[in-house]
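Translate sequence into structure tokens.
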Amino acid sequence: MAPLGIDEVDDETRQLFGRGMTAPDGSPLNIFGTLAHHPKFLKRWMPFAAHVLSKSTLPARDRELLILRTGFRCASRYEWGQHAVIALGCDISAEEIERVKAGPDAAGWSTHDAALLQAADDLHDDARVGDAAWATLASAYSDEQLIDVVGAVGNYHLVAFLLNSLGVQLDEGVADSLGR
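Result follows.
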């Protein structure tokens, strides 16, 4: 499904695009241009997506580790590519981004980071965070943060389902670095 351009959408969707949903050249990012085929869906999904990405109680580093692991497990090239770029600005090194692919048992993760990756895996595999990851996260997080963990992974599962099913192409300048 090809993304719609700014001149192909209604005024309300055009206003949504003006809220940080565009590339440097002003065109809508491919995910948003594609979802613009269903403007009511896009409009209603955006408040939750904005919460997860910018209003969550999670530290940005933790959020991005969850998103990267979810993108990897869902084989979502777009999700992985976009968030690999975002992660670099959130105290995650290029080496750590690559290590996310190896999962929570890879050498070098702190106990907390490994629990985040395990939580993403548990939710992907079993639709619930396992006891071990939950206990580790609960020792450091508030109840709100625990809910935000599940919400982040759940949102990015939905995003991966959409991206993969609709065939959303990488935006210009985003590397195809998923390696699958």
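Note: The CA atoms of residues 122 and 128 lie 6 Å apart.
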